[in-house]
Amino acid sequence: MKSALIKGCLRLIAFFIRALPKAAVPWVAFVFSRLAPVLMKRDTDLIASNIDRVYSLPPQSIFSKTFQRQVFRSQALVALETFKHQLSKTDLVHVEGLERARIMIDKLSGPGKGLLVVTAHHGSWEMVASTVAQVSGKTFVALAKPSTVPEFTEVLDNLRRRGNTRILWTDSKNLLRDMMGTLKSGGNLGFVMDQKPEGRVGPVVDFLGQATEFVAGPGKLAARHQSAVIAFFCMRTGPWEYRIEVETVVEAEHGIKDEDLLTQKMASAITRAIQLYPEQWVWNYKRWRTIEN
Fold this sequence. Notes:
- By secondary structure, the chain is an alpha/beta fold.
- The protein has two domains: 2-87, no CATH class; 94-280, no CATH class.
- Helix content is 50%, strand content 18%.
- The protein contains ten helices and nine strands.
- The strands form two sheets. It has a seven-stranded mixed sheet, sandwiched between helices. It has a two-stranded antiparallel sheet with strand order 6-7.
- The longest helix is centred in the N-terminal third of the chain and has 26 residues, at 62-87.
- It starts with a helix and ends in a 17-residue tail after the last helix.
- The model has no long low-confidence stretch (mean pLDDT 91).
């Protein structure tokens, strides 16, 4: 009964997104940006705390409050445009930089080495997967953590499959085997790696100017398999307009065995992308421990 109710609610949300006129999306995002600071107190406090930590902007300052609204507005715009695009039978968004990304991926992909693609919860990370699949001509394989709501996991999995993306769930017993198999077959393996590692156990790197525990998996794979690593982001530049921001982290056979050094290189690439489009990162996430007064 509960599962049927959740599925019904998700279908209703999907219907609303499909039916929402494109011209109405900015208005919905504007309303959300005004209501969220009042209704979503925990998220607002997290954004304010993280902004204070990274940019030294006090929560009560006009700069911080303006940035908080920009973050909420950006999240609404990207989410609505992304899901409306994914649910549509036609392309609703225009993506710039596809040819440059294709050339870079072709250059870095090596036989038997595959390619590690690192990204973050920044811009439209859902469109990163479908875009990499599009420009490479290969199914994109990405790691993902199952949602606590199985019905939502199923919906996301179906949408990702439509974008030629295969998900490796982090709770799978065959995860390591599947990851290594993807790289050995010359495939593209993706990680959204900006969130804290399980139990906060991982290499400590400089991320946004902060000493931060990072996930170790991508660095371990890059060191062990000597795969090339590329940082890939799909950033919103205007209404229904997106731009691919891509950076080579290391090339194949890079010779680096230091996993922490490789992880730092990945964290630095993500930092640079966030600095270009700061309002599009998910600031309402408890990435660091609370600042002590």
